[in-house]
Amino acid sequence: MSRKNRNIYLGRRVKDTGKKGLDNLKEVEDLCKAILADYHRRRISYAKAMRRLVFLRTTVIKRSEKLAGKKRKAYAIVRKYEEKLRRLKK
Questions:
Q1: By the 8 A CB rule, do 38 and 50 touch?
Q2: pLDDT tens-place values along the chain, 90 residues long
Q3: Contact by Cβ (8 Å): 67, 22
Q4: Helix (H, G, I), strand (E, B) or coil at 14
């Protein structure tokens, strides 16, 4: 796979605002939108899109010190997009 075709979200497709890395809820929502858009465009499968959303929720947000007080809201955002993806699958 060439470097151009990789699905790198934060910094490439989703503008990295504030400090480097995931540090606000807008970035979380934009990441979720980008993953869903890739699924719509058939760049990634349903399973891969779901894995990326679950990874974002369980690992990235969990370890992010920058999202300290906002983690519950970030979880809710990702859960909302997981549910949207499930509905699209049906």
A1: no
A2: 455 555 556 556 676 677 777 788 988 999 999 999 999 999 889 999 999 999 889 888 888 888 888 999 999 999 999 999 999 887
A3: yes
A4: strand
Q: How far is residue 25 from each of residues 45, 47, 81, measured CA to CA in Å? A: 25, 24, 13
Measure the CA–CA gap between 43 and 38, rounded to whole angstroms.
5
User: What CA–CA distance (Å, rounded) separates 70 from 27?
Assistant: 12
Q: Which residue has the tokens 């891969």?
A: 48
Q: Smallest Cα–Cα separation from 28: which of 39, 12, 44, 17? A: 17
